[in-house]
Amino acid sequence: MKILFSVAWDDAKNEDYSRKSTWGARNDEDVPRNEENGERNAWGLSNAWDALKNVWGPRNSNVPRKNYYQSTHCPNVEQLIRDITWSKVAQDPTLGAKLLRIHYHDCFVKGCDASILLDKVGSDDSEKEARPNLSLAGFEVIDDIKREVESKCPGIVSCADILALVARDAVSYPFKTSMWEVETGRKDGFVSLASNVNGNLPSPFSDFATLKQIFANKGLNVDDLVALSGAHTIGVAHCGAFSRRLFNFSGKGDMDPSLNATYAKDLKDVCPNPANPATIVEMDPMSSTSFDSNYFNILINQNKGLFQSDAALLNDKDSVIVIKKLQDDNTFFSEFAKSMKKMGAIELLTGNAGEIRKNFVAGARNVLRNNFYKSAPCPNAEQLIRDITWSKAKIDVKLGARLLRLHYHDCFLRGCDESVLLDTEGTEQSEKEAVPNLSLGGFDVIDDIKKQVEAKCPGIVSCADILALSARDAVSFPFKTSMWGAETGRKDGNVSLASEVLIQLVVAHCGTFSKRLFNFSGKGDIDPSLNATYAKDLKDVCPNPANPATIVDMDPLSSTSFDSNYFNILINQNKGLFQSDAAFLNDKDSVIVIKKLQDDNTFFFEFAKSMKKMGAIEVLTGNAGQIRKNCRVKN
């Protein structure tokens, strides 16, 4: 889900504003005076300082200020961050929208404390894992910049300040000047919980009253709400964030009447029902990489606001007045700058509150986390693995099923430690030799990937991580995007015993379901819960006794398509192949879940969450386990 209530930037020509910002004042003498009447109020707002105190608390030396790092051992850090950011945006013009969105999602949940960057520790999901945040992108850019800053100035610059500066600099790159002022001196927070996200972030489905209340809760008014919504002038959105407006707005299969009909038709062409979850559209048509006022023009003059929350801005007279003003580029830039500055000051940690984080992992380092190898001598490992896997999946459409099954069989035995890849040593058979694993395939692919990874980064990347990543990437190939997050940092196990397999796993060929066809209750009968026509088809392929090498599609006619068809044929046609499939229909809670998962988008989302949990089963990290040089043999 991609909603990004952006922030406004300062007109670069307004030198007086950048010098005299009330929000940057550190004491009474610094508070700017109105040049005409001598009153302390830069914009004629009598409650400006009171509003500031409400956001920051009492004034003291610990409030953020301009050039905070000038008086530290890292006086040039803002220039360093800008240079790195600009070099990256020059290569990827979509970064402005991505990094601005991360900053926004950070500030609206527990303030601008970089808690959005923290990886999960323990059993509680971090903010990153919350549904509205799953489509956030650009974390690797923050990782790279933090690493570079730490190498120059260790322990001085907070992640929260880096995020605020990077968001500003990425958006500013096309203008070659800073589009708004970022005061610094933030500290990093310790708490990051997915449960804190909902209710704090507006959704693309929010009505105006909800939007207004959420912004008010953060000390932001209607002017800020509208100005920050202007961030939708850059970036893209997934179909699911607005498809209801196209196909079922009021629950009657209708379209949102407030949406431009021609625009709606164009959107339907790109996002049919159901849509590919990987499909994206521009939030500001034909202008998604240009930061300008076009969003407001097409919103008020053409009814082309993409989200329901965009259209909601037209339902309030005060909001409409602001929208009309912001159709001018210079006015938009100035108002956006003011609102960004206010947003960047939400619930800050300063002084002795918070910490200066060295990396984006809370607590111990021996946990799985995103981009584990970015800080290792193999920063491009995940990209390399993806490229190799995709090239192989292009040739073999069944590779996704093979590697996913291999990963599954590995994780359910001693955890995701890649023990399923080990060959037998001595007299004790390895997991590979157990009957349920004899039909596993894809070992050669893992071997090949490991060989290429070792050639680039010897002794760095574990076989367990290669298996987890390649399984994800093989399934993801048809969608050309990662279908779930695969955290890394696993080590490889040393124990692999066939004797442990039989009590844990079962597999399929004809023998795994033939009892349902020929002798279900011991009387030569068919399982009555199995679709009769489907049972006849299965008997034709798997007579009694069947050839042990014969295989059938577990999802009839759809075994190479990763979709929700399994749930549809299970609950609507009784075509679950295994007795264990049919068993799901015998539990009311299970049936409720199955009904939900008949929708592709819901299935992809829930599958992603569960895969992430499965990939963390009993993992070895830190000093436990090893980094195997050959995935088939212990070091």
UniProtKB/TrEMBL annotation:
<feature type="active site" description="Proton acceptor">
    <location>
        <position position="105"/>
    </location>
</feature>
<keyword id="KW-0575">Peroxidase</keyword>
<dbReference type="InterPro" id="IPR010255">
    <property type="entry name" value="Haem_peroxidase_sf"/>
</dbReference>
<keyword id="KW-0349">Heme</keyword>
<dbReference type="GO" id="GO:0006979">
    <property type="term" value="P:response to oxidative stress"/>
</dbReference>
<feature type="disulfide bond">
    <location>
        <begin position="107"/>
        <end position="112"/>
    </location>
</feature>
<dbReference type="GO" id="GO:0020037">
    <property type="term" value="F:heme binding"/>
</dbReference>
<dbReference type="InterPro" id="IPR033905">
    <property type="entry name" value="Secretory_peroxidase"/>
</dbReference>
<dbReference type="GO" id="GO:0140825">
    <property type="term" value="F:lactoperoxidase activity"/>
</dbReference>
<comment type="function">
    <text>Removal of H(2)O(2), oxidation of toxic reductants, biosynthesis and degradation of lignin, suberization, auxin catabolism, response to environmental stresses such as wounding, pathogen attack and oxidative stress. These functions might be dependent on each isozyme/isoform in each plant tissue.</text>
</comment>
<comment type="similarity">
    <text>Belongs to the peroxidase family. Ascorbate peroxidase subfamily.</text>
</comment>
<dbReference type="GO" id="GO:0004601">
    <property type="term" value="F:peroxidase activity"/>
</dbReference>
<keyword id="KW-0408">Iron</keyword>
<feature type="binding site">
    <location>
        <position position="284"/>
    </location>
    <ligand>
        <name>Ca(2+) 2</name>
    </ligand>
</feature>
<dbReference type="GO" id="GO:0042744">
    <property type="term" value="P:hydrogen peroxide catabolic process"/>
</dbReference>
<feature type="binding site">
    <location>
        <position position="233"/>
    </location>
    <ligand>
        <name>Ca(2+) 2</name>
    </ligand>
</feature>
<keyword id="KW-0325">Glycoprotein</keyword>
<feature type="binding site" description="axial binding residue">
    <location>
        <position position="232"/>
    </location>
    <ligand>
        <name>heme b</name>
    </ligand>
</feature>
<dbReference type="InterPro" id="IPR000823">
    <property type="entry name" value="Peroxidase_pln"/>
</dbReference>
<feature type="binding site">
    <location>
        <position position="292"/>
    </location>
    <ligand>
        <name>Ca(2+) 2</name>
    </ligand>
</feature>
<dbReference type="InterPro" id="IPR019793">
    <property type="entry name" value="Peroxidases_heam-ligand_BS"/>
</dbReference>
<dbReference type="Pfam" id="PF00141">
    <property type="entry name" value="peroxidase"/>
</dbReference>
<keyword id="KW-0479">Metal-binding</keyword>
<feature type="disulfide bond">
    <location>
        <begin position="239"/>
        <end position="271"/>
    </location>
</feature>
<keyword id="KW-0106">Calcium</keyword>
<feature type="binding site">
    <location>
        <position position="111"/>
    </location>
    <ligand>
        <name>Ca(2+) 1</name>
    </ligand>
</feature>
<keyword id="KW-1015">Disulfide bond</keyword>
<keyword id="KW-0560">Oxidoreductase</keyword>
<feature type="region of interest" description="Disordered">
    <location>
        <begin position="19"/>
        <end position="40"/>
    </location>
</feature>
<feature type="compositionally biased region" description="Basic and acidic residues">
    <location>
        <begin position="26"/>
        <end position="39"/>
    </location>
</feature>
<feature type="binding site">
    <location>
        <position position="115"/>
    </location>
    <ligand>
        <name>Ca(2+) 1</name>
    </ligand>
</feature>
<keyword id="KW-0376">Hydrogen peroxide</keyword>
<feature type="domain" description="Plant heme peroxidase family profile">
    <location>
        <begin position="67"/>
        <end position="359"/>
    </location>
</feature>
<dbReference type="GO" id="GO:0009505">
    <property type="term" value="C:plant-type cell wall"/>
</dbReference>
<dbReference type="GO" id="GO:0046872">
    <property type="term" value="F:metal ion binding"/>
</dbReference>
<keyword id="KW-0964">Secreted</keyword>
<protein>
    <recommendedName>
        <fullName>peroxidase</fullName>
        <ecNumber>1.11.1.7</ecNumber>
    </recommendedName>
</protein>
<feature type="site" description="Transition state stabilizer">
    <location>
        <position position="101"/>
    </location>
</feature>
<feature type="domain" description="Plant heme peroxidase family profile">
    <location>
        <begin position="367"/>
        <end position="635"/>
    </location>
</feature>
<dbReference type="InterPro" id="IPR002016">
    <property type="entry name" value="Haem_peroxidase"/>
</dbReference>
<feature type="binding site">
    <location>
        <position position="202"/>
    </location>
    <ligand>
        <name>substrate</name>
    </ligand>
</feature>
<feature type="binding site">
    <location>
        <position position="127"/>
    </location>
    <ligand>
        <name>Ca(2+) 1</name>
    </ligand>
</feature>
